[in-house]
Amino acid sequence: MRKVFSSNELSETVLIRDALLHQDIAATIQNEHSGRTAIPEFRPPAEVWVSNDGNYEAARRIVVDAISTIDSKADAAPWACPNCREENPQSFDICWSCGHEKSLPE
What is the pTM of this model? Predict the structure, then answer.
């Protein structure tokens, strides 16, 4: 196993892990529950680890691409779900509320 990403934001580590899993790279999150400690200064960051060391380089490329995509969409206007009309951050491809996919621009 080898660490490919860490963050104090659990949501970021979940996004990275899911991006790796989507590309068929087995990955797990370590320190997932560390955000529940009483003293913020002593919270270790959550970490994403790949199960197979041979996937490390491919995983790092996916991490870099995922983070740059998240960063590029962070300031973009939110989109409204075509199904439930719930507002979603631009970086979401699936509605957080109902799971409907974001419509592609025509």
Answer: 0.64
